[in-house]
Amino acid sequence: MIEISESAAVLAGAALALLIAAGAGMLWVGLRARGRAERLVEANARLQALASGAPALAMIVRADGRIELSLPLANLLGFDEVPVQFGDLVDNEAVLGRDEAEMLEREVIAAQKAGKPFRMALPVRGANRTLLAIGERAPDAVRAPGGAVIWFFDATESSEEVARFANEADRYREAFDALTGLIQSAPMPMWYRDPELRIAMVNNAYVEAVDGSNAEHVVASGLELVDASAPGGPLASAANAREAGTPQMVKLPATIGGKRRTLHIHDVPLPTGGVAGFAVDVEELEQARSGIKRAGEAQRAMFDRLSAGVAQFGSDRSLVFCNQPFRRIFELKNEWLADRPEFDRILERMREANRLPVVRDFPGWKNERREWFVAAESAHEENWTLPGGTHLRVVAQPLPEGGLLTIFEDLTEQVQLASARDTLLRVRTATFDNLFEALGVFSADGRLQLWNSRFRQAWGFEEAFITSHPRVDALASEAASRLAKPGRVSLIGDLVRAATVERQQRGGSIEFADGRHFEVAAVPLPDGNALFTMLDISDRRRIENALRERNDALEAADRIKTAFVANMSYELRTPLTSIKGFAEMLYNGYGGPLPESAVDYSGAILESVGRLSDLVDDVLDLTRDGGALARETVDLELVAGVAVENVGPSAKGKKIELAVEIQGSAGTIQGDGRRIRQTIEHLLRHAIGATGEGGRVLLHIDGSDAGARIVVSDDGPGMAQEVAAKAFDRFAQAGISRNGERALHLGLPLARQFVEAHRGTIQLMSEPGQGTMVIAELPRG
Q1: Where residue 737 falls among pLDDT bands split at 50, 70, 90?
Q2: Are 255 and 363 contained in the same domain?
Q3: CA–CA separation, 187 vs 257, rounded Å?
Q4: For 86-148, what is the HEC assignment?
Q5: What is the pLDDT at residue 563?
Q6: Can you tell me whether residue 384 is helix, strand or coil?
Q7: Does the pLDDT at position 34 exceed 80?
Q8: Interatomic CA distance for residues 518 and 541, integer angstroms
Q9: Helices 673-690 and 636-653 meet at what angle, rounded to 10?
Q10: Is 584 part of a structural domain of the chain?
């Protein structure tokens, strides 16, 4: 047994304790290092996982040109194996282009030497990709002194996206520029308000509308297109649009270019909080609407004045308007039409009133008329024959805005007139062909269009020739040989040309070679044609010749009679003068004293001789037709006084009151005083001779500036109408007297002869039992 001293034991225990402590410390340090290593391994694995899943792959370029990269990056760069030298990358044109390789090399050198980071895009040819390279000096931890680290990102999709964004940006920029130009060139004012509703941008039309110098001036001045303080003005509309978040429109008046205009102000809220606006000038539209409204009212007023029925239906096929003739034609009441019935109901009501054509399939017929609303053609027209013989012309016009306009024209009278016209045409044709006159109608070009049978027969034309409608010159050439004077045939062409070209009616006469005579004339017709007429006057010519010969014989007999009467009158004067002379000698006692009865007998002889002398003078005056008139100034009052003295004894002998009224206006006239005196005497003697004893005869003379008037009236028995009608005719009264006695009264015919010789007038007015009045008017000159 080994004995250990206490001190040795203490030392041994201390050493053992020290060893145990050291072992424990080493164990702790090992455990700690192990934990640390595990954490490093875990962190390394995590970093490896992050690195392998990272979008960027790193490549280290050392100072000596060696490179370190992973196989995925090599594949990304277009290498099948990992390259070793940087030159293998930049010198390989299959991988990078020359320009890109040189740029990458410069950037890497700058990063290695100067620590300048870089960023560039590398289009990789081999991989057909685009990589984003971000390089910087290699950090110390990389343990690549003087080297550079390059991170490669696959930017293929990003580049495409960037390119697409760039293209879109260019397109948007172009669109923005175009939109800006469009806004600036827009004919309507446009503007933009900021969130505080201040004017922030305007276009050229806005500047021009507010009479601004430029857009900047308008924006700076805040010039409003419309008065902003007006209730419901532009600011209120913009505020409403901003608050409601919906576009707003308000109609406001404005003064633009010195003219009052009506604007539609549109405000559109924008996501930015501002409000865009534009103004549409609707002044012309408002005027057009007003004009359309007035036109519609005028159209309806015109429809109300039409004789045709008019009905207008809306797009819903309800009645919009109808005039009074429509109501009358179809017997529709105003109360029922006031409810705006539909088209179908109106047709049914028409049918109930028996105012539609009778059809078998009324529903089908009605459906066909309903198609008028959508008819492709512009209008549809048809004729309706109603029960009772009414004829209607129906026109249906689809309206552009929808609906239908129908017009119902009553053609009953026209149909009746057409039927009557057809009848008249047939009658005219029959009349035309059976007239006694020969007729032919020539057109404006001179061709014979119509003729009757007498025309062809008068000329003796062949049927084939006349049915060829010859021209007037050809017809004249054919007719020349049938005339007594062939050159006279030119009259036909002259008459037709005058009627068709000059539109004048002319006439003439032609003689045929066979002795026939025709009066020809050409009359212009309303349609431009000419009517050529031929009237056979052969019989009239013969009668005229016979009458002319008879008239010549009568005139010769009248001259012989007049000469005989004049000679007899002169011959009678010689024995009358002798009888008057011997009777005066016996009456005055030259042959010795006579018994009282012989004196009375000689006085009666003198009176009869005087009457016979006057009668001979009257007969001579008649045969001389008044003779030559002297031209002198005649005082009517003096002439009338002498005439009254001459007829005074005759009036006294019958106890007739002879009243004389001579007005101061009678004055004087230019004429033959003797004939005027004889006129007054004849009128007075006629009145005295026709008036019974105790009667009254009035001589009244007055005048005017134009002439004088002589009036002789009596209260005798008057005359019958047939006697008064012949009172002034020569010898018409022979053997007839107003009182029934047979006599020869030449006073009135001579009075008329003398008055008419002075260019005056004379008239007689008489009724049985009412007396007679004769009025003679003589001109002053």
Answers
A1: very low
A2: no
A3: 14
A4: HHHHHCCCCCCCHHHHHHHHHHHHHHHHHCCCEEEEEEECCCCEEEEEEEEECCHHHCCCCCE
A5: 66
A6: strand
A7: no
A8: 10
A9: 30
A10: no
- Are 134 and 150 within 8 A, CB to CB? yes
CA distances 313 to 289, 347, 355, Å, are 20, 13, 19
What's CA 2's distance to the chain center, in Å? 158
Instruction: Write out the residue range of the structural domain in which residue 326 sits.
Output: 287-416
Tokens 């293998």, residue? 88
Please tell me the total count of domains within the chain: 5
- Hey, which residues does 220 pair with through a beta bridge? none
Same domain, 335 and 403: yes
The last residue of a domain, from among 416, 447, 468: 416
**Which three-class secondary structure state does DSSP give residue 613?**
helix
What's the pLDDT score for residue 741?
A: 36
Residue-wise pLDDT for 309-337, tens only, equals 888 888 888 988 888 888 888 888 888 88
- Contacts of residue 649, defined as CB under 8 A and 6 or more positions apart, other chains included, come to none
Q: Are residues 763 and 638 in the same domain?
A: yes
How many other CB atoms are there within 10 angstroms of residue 507's CB atom? 14
Residues 409 and 297 in one domain: yes
pLDDT at 78: 76
**pLDDT number for residue 4:** 57
**CATH number for 354:** 3.30.450.20
Residue 762 maps to a domain: yes
pLDDT confidence of residue 324 = 87
Condensed to tens digits (0 to 9), the pLDDT of residues 435-493 reads 778 888 898 888 888 888 888 888 888 888 888 889 888 888 888 888 888 888 888 88
Domain contains 508: yes
Taking only the tens place, the pLDDT of each residue in 69-117 is: 887 777 777 787 888 888 877 777 777 778 877 888 888 888 888 888 8
Residues 6+ apart with CB under 8 A from 550: none
Please tell me the pTM assigned to this model: 0.34
pLDDT digits (tens, 9 = 90+) for 346-395: 888 888 888 888 888 888 898 888 888 887 667 888 898 888 888 888 99
pLDDT of residue 160: 67
Residues 636 and 731 both lie in one domain: yes
Residue 572: its pLDDT value, please?
61
Q: Taking the CB of residue 297, how many other CB atoms lie within 10 A of it?
A: 10
Token pair recorded at residue 9: 């034991």
Higher pLDDT, 634 or 555: 634
Question: What mean pLDDT is reported for the chain?
Answer: 80
Residues 468 and 450 in one domain: yes
Cα–Cα dist 669/640, whole Å: 13
Q: Are residues 82 and 194 in the same domain?
A: no
Q: What is the pLDDT of residue 569?
A: 59
585, 588, 605, 609, 616 from 580: Cα distances, Å: 9, 12, 8, 6, 14
Q: What is the percent of the chain where pLDDT is above 70?
A: 84
Nearest partner of 195 among 126, 271, 273, judged by Cα: 273
Same domain membership, residue 727 and residue 685: yes
At residue 224, the 3 state secondary structure works out as: coil
Using the 3D structure, point to which of 234, 264, 281 is the last residue of a domain.
281
Instruction: Identify the bridge partners of residue 265 per DSSP, sorted by sequence position.
Output: 250, 279
- Beta pairing, strands 657-662 & 696-703: parallel
- Tell me, letter by letter, the H, E, C secondary structure of 691-746: CCCCCEEEEEEEECCCEEEEEEEECCCCCCHHHHHCCCCCCCCCCCCCCCCCCCCC
Rounded CA-CA distance 203/218 in Å is: 10
Q: Assess contact for 142 and 60: CB atoms under 8 A.
A: yes
Residue 769, in any domain of the structure: yes
> Given a cut of 60, is residue 211 above it in pLDDT?
yes
Q: Per-residue pLDDT averaged across 731-755, rounded?
A: 60
User: In angstroms, how far is the first alpha carbon of the chain from the final one?
Assistant: 219
Using CA atoms, how far residue 716 sits from 295, 337, 389, 656, 713, in Å, is 82, 82, 71, 11, 9
